[in-house]
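Pasting two entries for a bug report.
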Amino acid sequence: MRIGLVQMVCEKAALRENLAQMATIYAEAVERDVDVVGFPEMCLTGYVDPLKWPKAVLPLNSPEVTSAVALTRGCATVLLFGLVETHPDGDKPYITQIVARDGSVLGIYRKRTVVDEEADWFSPGGPVLIFTHDDVTCGIAICADIGNRSVFADLTAQGARLVFELAAPGLYGAQETRNWQSGFTWWEGECRDHLGAYAREFGLWIAVATQAGRTIDEDFPGGAFCFAPTGERVFASPDGAPGVVWLAVDL
């Protein structure tokens, strides 16, 4: 299976700009005949405080979400993209990842693991999501799900063979004195320790795509990684620079 893992700078509430980046990268994925391209958590809306940027909190039928899904019209390449989603019942919003192909939504996953400061802003989701492409069953985990074994256990129980961990782990500390290498090293270690163990325990392929770079008030480490069912990390980007990694995963 051919996959794309996107390290993208996703400015907060910059809906038009983020969608334009997504369109360019998705078009390249189609040109490369990629099966699935994974964008990081909240790539469309940016990682926003919903109280500070309420206009970036989107219902699923918003023009921006509709336009993102429409990128896939007539294309077999699966698009995985993230946003902050309006809660249908008026509660705190969801952190959501949408699966789209050929102009249609194949599925929606709402982040299950909402902890620490996120619990003040967001509602936790529930069931995991699987989708099938070319007879391969895939699943999605979002950022802090990395510390929740049940997400990966449930995906395995539903037949997943390849899981996309799509993330936006904000880095702590002042932007002015940011040590990018230490932030990248921290996230790289989190992925290696948690995802390597899940891959080995459950016999999964796990691929990681991460928000990268500086936004108006927060920085992200970037990083693309791939783990084999042995637990071995078979690919790691050398740093957290924005860009796209194109991989062939031999399932």
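Entry 2 (this is the one that rendered wrong in the viewer):
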Amino acid sequence: MRQLALASLVACLALTGCSGDPQERYCDAVQEHQTALSDIAASEDAGAIFGALDAYEDLQDKAPRDIADDWAEVVDPLRELEQVLTDHGVDPSSYAADDPPADLDDEGRRAIEAAARAVGSEQTVTAMAAVEQHALDVCGTPLSR
């Protein structure tokens, strides 16, 4: 019995560090990603937001239950837009809806516009506001400065 308890303790330390506070783990991740997210937020490159996706997904993975759904509402539409752009060979940094690439067909344009609308939807914007506010309220720091 003693060996089982010791094995469980070792497994816990190896897998999670036994950090019993998921909130603390999440807040540490917020601080860890803050500089990169600040740089992305300050960028004038329209495609820069896709550089935030890995950080967003890390935060989504570490998010406490009360904010996890909001992270999914932020990450999923961005990943979808990124995929649609990739599928149609479109550079997000240079795409303009009013002047799409000459080789982009109507179907591709419609798919990109639909994915972009999902990113800009009230649901996604509200979710982003919620994760930003959560970082301030719970972690005492914004996602970006």
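Dev reply: Rendering is fixed now. As a check, the viewer should reflect this: The chain has one domain: 20-139.
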